[in-house]
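Deviations from the work plan: none for this task. Representative record:
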Amino acid sequence: MAFLSIHGLTVSYGGKADVLRDVSLEVERGEVIGLIGPSGSGKSTILRTLVGLLKPRAGTVTLDGTKVDYGSRGSLRAARDRFAIVFQQYNLFQNMTALRNVAIAPTLVKKRGRATVEEEARALLARVGLAEKVNAYPDELSGGQQQRVAIARALALKPDILLLDEITAALDPELVGEVLDTIRALQKDGMTMLIVSHEMAFIREVASRVAFLDQGSVVETGPPAEMFDRPNSPRLKEFTSRILRH
Amino acid sequence: MTDRRALFAGGAAAAAAAATLLTPKDAAARSLNDVLSGGEIRVGVNPTLPPRALFNERNQIDGFEPEVAAAIARKMGVRLALQPVGSPERIPMVASGRIDFVMGAMSRTSERAKVIDYTVPVHSENYGIVAVQGRGHTSIEALNKPEVTLAQVRGTTAIAYIQRAIPNAQVLLLDNYPDRNRAIAQGRAQASFDGIDSVRFALRPFRQVQWEVTAVPEFGVTYSGLGVAKDNHSLRNWLNIALYELHTDGTIERAWEKWFDGPMFTKVPASPFF
Amino acid sequence: MNYTLIYSQVTGHIPYLLGGAVLTLQLAVISFLAGWAIGLLNASVLHFGPRPARLAVQGYVTFFINTPLLVQIFFIFFVLPDAGILLSPYAAVAIGMSLNAGAYLTEIQRAGFQSLRREEIDAATAMGFSVPQLVWYVVLPHIAKALYPPLSNQFIIQVMTTSIAAIFAVEELTGRAYNVNSLTFRSLEVFSIVAVIYVLLTLVCSVALALLGRWLFRVKARVF
């Protein structure tokens, strides 16, 4: 069985029709999966469901051979222990410095010693190129810098799988590069990642496999070159032609 | 911050209010002639001290003092306007001429007489111990112990006596006599040393408690007169004569017996000289 | 007006009045802190709690906001003893004021919860924060900062409100003012001195709160 196995995942909220319908996906360790598709196709919903921000109505998620029960607190905590998510809007804690943003969850949730955690946090911030900004508050940082702090914060949890939810969508174009560089480095280190993004060129570069979603369902999966150059389904054809034209 | 500005504004408003109260020429005590020509005498009474003054079932001010005030107004030939007053504002109200004289818990003391002038006494005030029956709280010695708590009403003359003569007892200062009586009934306090003139009236609502009232005549008697603004001699002289007449014709004693369910513990002799 | 202000007749009582001011401040601090904690707990329940708990909190807030504080303390002071609960005057007033402040501080802090950024809560939830951790580390600093001015105001109101304690045998500033007044009859002198003490008290508190806010929450409040 794959490292992460999603089977028949169905999610609905707000009394609306299913946002995700019978989604299945297999992810091997060290793989980078690109999730693409039009707005509202359910890409972000997959990530938010995996970290337990949304409750699935049906389907199973199996991580490293263990089924995740999103109804039980212990199982949910175990899942959150292994998934870490980075959001489009960075979602940093505004009242904390960059260092504290990175260090708080390991000390609080994982009950690790503050001194070692802060040392690791400094190293992580250095790794994303923010060694000088450890004591800056989010409102003193640019969008790109904030997003890199958010990535360091996610990495501080030592996740098995990193979930990236349109992390460059809110950034000014000139700041996108610095964030993507950080992700490239993570890919080289063998980090397993699920990436939701509209940066098709970037997906093509880092993803080992791509899943195309439309209206809450996975329509097609495959290696990026095949997906982008020789799409099978008409919907993916339409999507790629629309995206790649500009 | 806005709260600080509001504060300064509040402080300034308070200062301005004090200034207006003190400075304008018309805000002065009215002489006898002012009252007569105005056709109305304004009298302050404290309706939290029944039966001296109280609100009756028609929600009008009634009681011993309004009755005496009405007799005074009749003698003067003017209308009576009763003004309810509490203890902090009654002196400024007399000094500024908003009321012409004040009644209600106006026991004479040399300290108070520095601030306000008194007429001859209207009635005597007699002191004693109010307690629950059978607990032995019937003498000053029995009360003068740290385990005894005395419930008293804030702003009454008995408190000064207690500090002097019953120093070992704890004192619980409450807002009014019903609260004091409730405190004793509920066991918050064991007794009260205070005026016992109105005790029959005041203890009526607490029928479930067996009360014991012990007069303490060795503490002497205090006298309540009418409080008149300092140096308002014309009004005070007239009031003294009116009170002499009301004492000699029995009006005051009759009003007392009606409201207090019995005669004064100490009679006030009508003195022709002031 | 034939009244002469003679302050020398009451200046001897100023130390006694200042002793009352200490008690006033004590009552204000205790009831504010207790009310703040009640308010925070209630606002958390309203935001994160199950429906029955939310209804209970709403009932509490409605009751305490729509009845006068005087009546609430009267109940605690004079009615509870009939049920066998005899609290000291100080305790009765402190509890009454705390419960009352708790209702107002629930309302204030609930507004703070509503102004929270959903994103920060999502991030904390996804990282596995428990609800108490979420409230303490994410919600509280946010509302402390956003609500610092109304919370400071509530504290100043709390200082003023303590004057009600005089009715229930607590010898705070106002109670002592009544005592001195009945002794000397120097009402204008006594109450003007007391007014000045209250102004000084609230002024000192405002400055202290502004400094505290700067230091704790980076609130850019003007000190003067």
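Chains A and B do not touch (no CB pair under 8 Å).
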